[in-house]
Amino acid sequence: MGKNTMSCLVLAFGLMIILVLNASASPSDGITCEEALRQLITCNLYFLGFRPSPSPICCKGVQNVSQQANTTTIRRSLCECFETAAKAFQIIPQRLKQLPQLCKVIVPVPLDPTVDCNT
To answer: Which residues, at least 6 apart from 78, have a Cβ–Cβ distance to it below 8 Å?
Structure first.
């Protein structure tokens, strides 16, 4: 893939984050949707199928987000955030689901764009 195409994908991904952030609610305390997506932006090439596995920096972001998802309210908010982001960014659902296993991180938030975040 050419350098220009990759740059355009990263730019488009960043712009989509802005759109999702404007549409997502965030908890009053703890990590917000915006903060979580910023930490996971390094995963975009994996999410979109351009890398066979997540990078170490991506996995560090997953670990950070996971550690900060420490209340039911935050977990529900992040679930909704990830669900919206996955649909908006056209993330490959199977890649999202595999992320905790590949990064060897226990994630207290479902990484599945089809999950009901209220359960």
So the answer is: 31, 33, 36, 65, 69, 109
23-47 as b/e, with b when 16 or more CB fall inside 10 Å? ebebbeebbbbbbbbebbebbbbbb
Residues contacting 115, CB < 8 A, separation 6+: 79, 83
Nearest to 8 by CA among 39, 48, 35, 38: 48
Sign of CA dihedral 41, 38, 4, 90: positive
Q: CB-based burial of residue 106 (10 Å sphere; 0-12 exposed, 13-18 middle, 19+ buried)?
A: exposed
* CA pair distance 110, 79, nearest whole angstrom: 6
Question: pTM of the entire structure?
Answer: 0.74
Interval 9-54: pLDDT, tens? 554 555 454 444 444 444 456 899 999 999 999 999 999 999 999 9
Rounded to whole angstroms, the maximal C-alpha distance in the chain is 43
